Amino acid sequence: PQTLVHSAEPENFDDTKRSLIAGERIGNEPGYNSICDSIVTQIPGEKTFPVNKKLLAEGFSVSETDVIVAMQALANDLRIVTEPGGAAAVAAILRDRERWKGKTVVAVVSGGNVDLDTFRELMKYRA
Questions:
Q1: Rounded CA gap, 86 and 68, in Å?
Q2: The predicted structure's pLDDT at residue 127
Q3: What are the E-state strand segments in 1-127?
Q4: Sequence ranges of the domains in the chain
Q5: What pLDDT, in 10s, does the model give residues 54-112?
């Protein structure tokens, strides 16, 4: 019961984060793209938002660079290949490392549905 659960979303698709702050469902502005296509939504779900509003402590948004750095760390340090959306939680943790110092933190890493050529290109990226 004391566990704090957070969401992680790509920038410009942080509808859950902004909706949690506002206390109501807020949609995203059109016209943006993200490498995190597996977790991109336009607006929090009608049925899921009340659940998230009750259970989520906070939402985070991460940049494309944050996600790529997380994918690289997962691949290089842990030998985990994940799609960009699957690395969003790790991206949020790595970006704000000091916040989590001394705490037990768990990130859900899911989805290996990434094109290998795309994955190879992202592994070459230097922030």
A1: 11
A2: 80
A3: 5-10, 56-62
A4: 5-124
A5: 999 999 999 999 999 999 999 999 999 999 999 999 999 999 999 999 999 999 999 98
pTM over 0.90: yes
Q: For the domain made up of 5-124, give the CATH fold.
A: Rossmann fold (3.40.50)
Residues 62 and 84 sit within 8 Å (Cβ to Cβ): no
Select from 64, 115, 109, 69 the least CA-distant residue to 86.
Answer: 109
In angstroms, the first-to-last Cα distance of the chain is: 38
d(Cα 59, Cα 38) in Å, to the nearest integer? Answer: 17
Residue 62 · residue 11 · CB < 8 Å: yes
User: Which H/E stretch holds residue 52?
Assistant: helix 48-55
Written as six digits, the tokens of 59 are: 């939402």
Instruction: Identify the residue whose tokens are 């991460």.
Output: 62
Q: 10 - beta bridge partners?
A: 62
